[in-house]
UniProtKB/TrEMBL annotation, chain B:
Classification via Pfam families: BPD_transp_1 (PF00528)
Main location class: membrane
Stated name of the protein: Spermidine/putrescine transport system permease protein PotC
Entry keyword Kinase: no
Subcellular location: Cell inner membrane; Cell membrane
Bilayer topology annotation: Multi-pass membrane protein
CDD domains xrefs: TM_PBP2
Keywords: Cell inner membrane, Cell membrane, Membrane, Transmembrane, Transmembrane helix, Transport
Length: 364, 269, 306
């Protein structure tokens, strides 16, 4: 991974975490390396059990790594207990103290740091304003809604001005509309405070819309780190392509290599031009991926031919399932327009046109 | 089905409600009788001869009753407080952890007084304390207090442990994350949240100590009657409604404590 | 191993040590006033009785032999200890009777509570628990007042002309049984209720849907599903019944003894502490076997349903 010239807020070096012993041993993290830049909105994305929450807990200090170093501004913090790290967490369950009011929850960290009272009060006011909760300052945390609890949890974690804010699936308990609102709110807060956010989620859409960079994790490893566009458009491995968005996979073999690309003969016999990631030398059997929205149906003249097997209407778009002539299925997505409903019927023979540069040869 | 529209309740079982109502009635009949005849003007505990408070008065003026009551409260207070502190510490040590060597042993040890019949513990204490009394010459209330503390611990432990186990562990993690030292986490988060459990444990222990007859009967030295052992001694004779009066006051106190306990544990869940 | 791993290991080690320190006071008190003395009882059961109570420090297995056998004074042969055996049998018989009777009364009562609306269930439960938390001696005394010859039961029956003279109930086995059923009933109702509360009544609906009668629904669906509660309640009633001391003393009047009273007798008028110790240990063993049986059953049913 190329080193960035910017300063790193957090640098994880060769961190492993093993739970249990002997036959019960579970490797939660396996030699993970990642550098998170200062003032960055960084997301750890992956299915449950991939190790993303474990990595977050190691950075927070709730667990100790089995091996490796965690640097905060260049200093190893891995052996420090959580109360000695300038890092705060927003918990998935919020973990608001039920015996304290909203304001007392927010001031908790500052009081523990022994800040003078007037400073604490001023900071609490500022935080309540930041998350727009001024009227509810003396409420008990049991008397406020889920969305409000979420805001209090954010304010509480931001109040001590941590170097890094860790967010462990903070939006998962909210309903769809509130979640959308809070996504925008979180981006605003990150922008206004300038604090490094490390965000954990299993929701790829959330990751794509909010993050500056994303690390995709699976089975204790980081598979790819990059901007949302890079992760979506140029997935490095099959898992990333499959986990993020919908993808068509075509099996085939290399016919001919060219600069930055290759000509692939897929199993149906058709030949497709596909791009190849930098530094990857494919040979023999390969997988080619094409996003459904990067292909379109046509009466004739496309690279692939087949028969329409199903049409699924989604409101904003429609999915056309095509049974390819040589076997296998291919999905084409089309944005719906009011005046164009299309005339395709199930059973019609169709041709698929793959856009220029849309096909990509993948590492397995 | 004469009505043509019978409401078939799937929960109904014939006769069950009758038995249940009978059960509740029989459960309270002796207690209610006992209380009613405490106010009897005559000497009988079966024939009503008019309302009077004379038996309460008699009990109040009975020096041995007052003395035994004071002793009961003394023992119960000390035993309940010590047992609750020990049980709280033990509960903190045995919950919310991955199993470690000795954990099962601790559970068994703490609950041991509940598993052995009281009469067995009572004679065991009689044997041991008799030797210690001879060896040290001390024959104060200490023996009773230690004995009561021991059997109060598992009762106090019960609600405290339940409270701890239902407590969200991430609250303490959150406090640590917000710069609280382990001691601050305990005093500012764990203890305030545990408080209802501790109060419940304390009251339970107090009632259990107050009620004890068997162990007290075997451990006490001469002139160390508690209210229950005093009553046990009196039951051999022909009883007068004075016993009913004492029982009524005792019942009232127990019910009061249990009611408070009930509402505390209900509110905290 | 890295330095952080070392830190983690040390933290775990410190945690376990802290946990031992925290539990030390409770463990020490219970050892001092419960487990330790129990071990002394084991020692005493192998000693010789002293002339005025207490023991002589001479090893003897006589106490254990005389738990079950007795030496014939004239012939010097060993026979079954009839007196002890009778008390053992009476204790077991009375305890079993108490268990069955509390089950017969407690099952419908627990079912009644469990089928009340959610809000009132807690109240009914409270009504059942109140007598349980009030003094056992007072409750026994209350029963005594009701059933004694001059008590309201006999007075009422005579007054109504149903009987001509009071029936002697007090100081009989019946009195002990009535008293134990009365004081231990809540111990049956509470665990029964706990498993009935979890009963999924959609299963009962399914039973009726498949043509079961009310009786069949009860015996084929409800009873098997609440069996853990039945077992727990039975153990909870049987164990204290077997070791009962106060109830037989007050209601049996010293004539109708149970095991608890027999043990006491050895430390009082009997002046045979080793025998008392051996009897106490015998009782403990029976109770432990019952508990062990229950623990294994509970673990099994948890494995099956968990």
């Amino acid at each position: 991974m190329p080193e960035t010239p910017e300063r790193n807020a957090i640098e994880v070096r060769g961190v492993s975490k093993v739970f249990g012993f002997g036959p019960d041993k579970v490797v939660a993290l396996d030699d993970v390396h990642v550098a998170i830049r200062e003032n960055e909105f960084f997301t750890l994305l992956g299915p449950s059990g991939c190790g993303k929450t474990t990595l977050l807990r190691l950075i927070a200090g709730f667990d100790f790594p089995t091996d490796g170093e965690i640097l905060l501004h260049g200093q190893d913090i891995a052996p420090l207990p959580p109360h000695k790290r300038p890092v705060n967490t927003v918990f998935q369950s919020y973990a608001l103290f039920p015996h304290l009011t909203v304001a007392k929850n927010i001031s908790f960290g500052l009081e523990m740091l022994g800040r003078p009272k007037d400073e604490v009060d001023a900071r609490v006011d500022e935080m309540l304003k930041l998350v727009r909760m001024e009227e509810l300052r003396n409420r008990s945390t049991a008397q406020i809604s889920g969305g409000q609890q979420q805001r209090v949890a954010l304010a509480r974690a931001l109040a001590p001005q941590p170097k890094v804010l860790l967010l462990d699936e903070p939006l998962s308990a909210l309903d769809y509309k509130l979640r959308k609102e809070m996504q925008i709110e979180l981006k605003r807060l990150q922008h206004e405070t300038g604090i490094t956010f490390i965000f954990v989620t299993h929701d790829q859409e959330e990751a794509l819309t909010m993050s500056a960079r994303i690390a995709v994790m699976s089975a204790g490893n980081i598979l790819q780190i990059g901007s949302p566009e890079a992760i979506y458009d140029r997935p490095a491995v099959r898992f990333v392509a499959d986990f993020i968005g919908e993808t068509n996979f075509l099996e085939g073999s290399i016919e001919e290599r060219a600069a930055g690309g290759a000509r692939v003969r897929i199993s149906s016999g058709a030949v497709i031009d596909a791009s190849v990631a930098e530094g990857f030398q494919p040979s023999g059997r390969v997988t080619v991926v094409v996003r459904p929205e990067h292909a379109r149906l046509s009466a004739e003249g496309g690279q692939l031919a087949g028969r329409l097997s199903n049409i699924v209407y989604f409101g904003t778009d429609t999915h056309f399932h095509v049974e390819l002539d040589g076997g296998g299925e291919f999905i084409v997505r089309r944005q719906n327009a009011r005046d164009d409903r299309g005339t395709a019927r199930i059973g019609d023979p169709v041709s698929i046109v793959i856009g220029a540069g849309a096909a990509q040869v993948l590492r397995d | 089905m004469a009505s043509g529209r019978s409401n078939f309740s799937i929960r109904h079982q014939p006769g069950f409600t009758t038995v249940a109502v009978l059960c509740f009635a029989l459960l309270y009949l002796p207690i209610v009788t006992l209380v009613v005849f405490a106010f009897n003007a005559g000497r009988s505990v079966a024939i009503w001869e008019g309302f009077s408070l004379r038996w309460f008065e008699a009990a109040w003026n009975n020096e041995r009753v007052i003395e035994a009551s004071i002793r009961s409260v003394q023992i119960a207070s000390v035993a309940a407080v010590v047992a609750t502190i020990a049980a709280t510490m033990a509960a903190l040590a045995t919950t919310r952890t991955r199993p470690y060597r000795g954990l099962t042993f601790k559970y068994a040890f703490i609950n041991q007084p509940l598993m052995i019949p009281e009469i067995v513990t009572a004679v065991a204490l009689l044997i041991v304390f008799a030797r210690i009394k001879v060896a040290t010459g001390y024959s104060g209330l200490g023996y009773l207090i230690v004995a009561h503390t021991a059997f109060c611990i598992p009762f106090a432990y019960l609600p405290i442990r339940a409270r701890l186990e239902s407590m969200d562990l991430t609250l303490e993690t959150a406090a640590a994350d917000l710069y609280a030292t382990p001691w601050k986490v305990f005093t500012r988060v764990t203890l305030p949240l545990l408080w209802p459990g501790i109060i419940a444990g304390l009251m339970l222990a107090f009632v259990i100590s107050l009620d004890d007859v068997v162990i007290t009967e075997f451990v006490k030295s001469g002139g160390q009657d508690t209210l229950p052992t005093y009553m046990l001694g009196q039951l051999r004779r022909l009883v007068t409604p004075e016993m009913n009066a004492i029982s009524t006051v005792f019942l009232l106190i127990s019910i009061l404590i249990v009611t408070v306990f009930f509402f505390i544990s209900r509110r905290s869940t | 191993m890295s330095q952080t791993a070392e830190t983690a290991r040390k933290a775990e080690h410190d945690d376990v040590r802290k946990r031992w320190l925290l539990s030390a006071p409770a463990l020490a008190i219970i050892f001092m006033a419960s487990i330790g003395p129990l071990l002394v009882v084991v020692v005493y059961s192998f000693l010789t009785p002293g002339p005025y109570g207490d023991v002589k420090w001479a090893f003897s297995t006589d106490a254990w032999i005389s738990v079950f056998l007795q030496r014939d004074i004239f012939e010097g042969t060993l026979g079954i200890a009839d007196a002890h055996l009778q008390i053992f049998l009476r204790s077991v018989r009375l305890s079993l009777f108490t268990t069955i009777a509390t089950l017969a009364f407690g099952f419908p009562t627990a079912y009644f509570i469990a089928t009340r609306p959610q809000r009132t269930q807690a109240l009914w439960l409270f009504v059942i628990t109140i007598p349980f938390w009030t003094n056992l001696l007072i409750r026994t005394f209350a029963v005594q007042e009701v059933i004694r010859n001059e008590g309201i039961l006999n007075t009422a029956l005579v007054g109504l002309g149903i009987i001509s003279a009071p029936i002697q109930i007090l100081y009989t086995d019946w009195a002990i049984a009535i008293g134990m059923i009365y004081v231990y009933l809540p111990l049956m109702v509470l665990p029964l209720y706990a498993s009935m509360e979890k009963l999924d009544f959609r299963l009962v609906e399914a039973g009726y849907d498949l043509y079961a009668t009310r009786f069949r629904v009860l015996t084929r669906i409800i009873v098997p599903l609440v069996k853990p509660g039945i077992v727990a309640g039975s153990i909870l009633v049987f164990i204290p019944s077997l070791g009962a001391y106060v109830t037989p003393r007050v209601l049996g009047g010293g004539k109708q003894m149970m095991l608890g009273n027999l043990i006491e007798l050895q430390f009082g008028a009997g002046r045979n502490w080793p025998l008392g110790a051996a009897l106490a240990l015998t009782l403990t063993v029976i109770v432990m076997v019952a508990l062990l049986f229950y623990v294994r059953y509970a673990a099994q049913s948890e494995r099956r349903h968990g």
